[in-house]
Amino acid sequence: MYGEIDLESYTLSIIRLNTALQKLEDNGEINEIRNLLEESHAELEKLYKDIVDDLNQDEINVNEYYLFFQNGKQTFPQYIEILGNIENSEINDVVMKLINVFRNLNKIADAFKG
Q1: pTM of the shown model
Q2: What is the pLDDT of residues 16-66, one digit of tens each?
């Protein structure tokens, strides 16, 4: 990533996640919901690993990270709460993975001073 956040990937993962949540609320097809959640998780997990790698480099684009994590301080806890309220054994494993990645991102956001 070389000091830049892949905002396109982040945006797509959030769109997939929101679509899955809406389909879940609308009693949509569980396999489709699972696929959307798994794709979202894979993208968010890659983003998280890229961010950790970037933040361990000597030079980073602090301004981009500052804005990303300022927004994340608001949104990451919301997704943790929303996902934590899902009670569906068929997707519980991927929901827990998503909660974990949002918790990891939230920890960085809380610690990030910019």
Answers
A1: 0.93
A2: 999 999 999 999 999 999 999 999 999 999 999 999 998 888 777 677 788
Tell me the pLDDT tens digit for each residue of 60-85: 767 778 889 999 999 999 999 999 99
Find the DSSP H helices in 1-114: 7-25, 30-55, 62-84, 92-111
Q: With contact defined as beta carbons under 8 Å apart, do 38 and 95 qualify?
A: no
Q: How far is CA 99 from CA 55, 84, 94, in A?
A: 22, 7, 9
Report residue 70 as tokens: 């300022």
Nearest to 68 by CA among 22, 11, 2, 1: 11
Compute the distance between CA of residue 81 and CA of residue 7 in angstroms, rounded to an integer.
Answer: 23
Tokens of 62: 């602090």
Greatest distance between any 2 Cα atoms in the chain: 48
Amino acid letter, 9 = S
